[in-house]
Automatic annotation (TrEMBL):
Lineage: Bacteria, Pseudomonadati, Bacteroidota, Bacteroidia, Marinilabiliales
GO MF term list: DNA binding
Family to which this protein belongs: Belongs to the 'phage' integrase family.
Segments forming domain Core-binding (CB): 1-86
Protein name, UniProt field: Tyrosine-type recombinase/integrase
PANTHER family: PHAGE INTEGRASE-RELATED, PROPHAGE INTEGRASE INTD-RELATED
Domain of life: Bacteria
Length: 297
């Protein structure tokens, strides 16, 4: 079978039976297209060998400056496809199984300090927006990022029913790896969201999506967050992006005394080991631990 048709069957299987998200499927398709662009002569899956995959990765590292994380993700994508092909008896073995995985650097997650996060909210509140709704929405968006650690795609897909200001919870549906989770709402964030909802109601927005477009009664477009962040960065001089705010939420929560298990649940991590990376970023946590040294003379 032609390789792209076979890969399409793999994507359909992953979506239906594995529960992979559309975003994951998008990257599966993107990776195979990059691979086939590098090897335009490949027509069937049996032509994919370990040597060819390794040469593709080497070119990516040496010519395109792929990071260890990028290489790991590319290999995972290819391996998922080839593993499925083995299970479906299209090939006998997965060529990726014998390719060593790159060692990822154990870098401390970049994040904003508490002072920077507070200044970021100040700039967001005081920016000279053209419209009142734009201001209310911007404050609600920035607050949601900083007070929940939510991912960009998760924020965009929030529905009205997912935000319960009475029970003070935010429900993330079908997050990364198709997991649902509940996040408690901070009192200040509740205030920001209430202000936004009042203006949303004033404009008679009826779309089920929580964050709406300004001129249409529809879901907020993807460029809204990008434009907002660019405006605030230019005014404040603070460099940030959505995932950096997620790191900031995690780090500040730990510094505030939040336990690792609760934070892991709020972030939606499958393995608590993923959450432990933020311990290295919390100076207050380290200072507290060094204070437990028994020598006292």
């Amino acid at each position: 079978m032609e390789i792209l048709k076979l890969h399409e069957r793999f994507c359909q299987h992953s979506l239906v039976f594995k529960g992979n998200t559309p975003r994951t499927i998008y990257w599966f398709k993107t990776d195979i297209k990059w691979f086939l662009k590098f090897y335009p002569d490949i027509e069937t899956i049996d032509q994919i060998t370990r040597e060819r995959i390794e040469d593709w990765v080497l070119d990516g590292k040496l010519e395109k400056n792929w990071t260890a994380q990028t290489i790991k993700l590319r290999l995972q994508s290819m391996s998922s496809f080839l593993k499925w092909a083995v299970q479906q008896d299209y090939i006998k073995e997965n060529p990726c199984d014998k390719i060593p995985k790159p060692r990822l650097p154990k870098s401390i997650p970049k994040h904003l300090t508490q002072d920077q996060a507070e200044r970021l909210m100040d700039w967001t509140r005081n920016y000279p927006y053209e419209y009142k709704f734009d201001r209310k929405r911007a404050i609600a968006i920035m607050g949601t990022f900083l007070y929940t650690g939510i991912r960009k795609a998760e924020l965009a897909n929030l529905k009205m029913e997912d935000v319960d200001l009475v029970d003070k919870t935010l429900y993330v549906r079908n997050g990364k790896c198709a997991k649902d989770r509940l996040i408690p709402l901070h009192p200040l964030l509740i205030m920001y969201l209430e202000d936004y909802l009042k203006d949303r109601k004033r404009l008679k927005k009826t779309t089920p999506f929580f964050f709406t477009a300004m001129r249409q009664d529809s879901k907020m477009g993807d460029p809204v967050v990008k434009r907002l962040f660019e405006k605030i960065q230019k005014r404040s001089g603070i460099k940030f992006y959505p995932h950096l705010l997620r790191h900031t939420f995690a780090t500040l929560m730990l510094e505030g005394g939040c336990n690792l298990y609760a934070l892991s649940r709020m972030l939606g991590h499958s393995d608590i080991k993923t959450t432990t990376i933020y311990l290295a970023a919390t100076k207050a946590h380290l200072e507290d631990q060094i204070g437990k040294h028994p020598l006292n003379f």
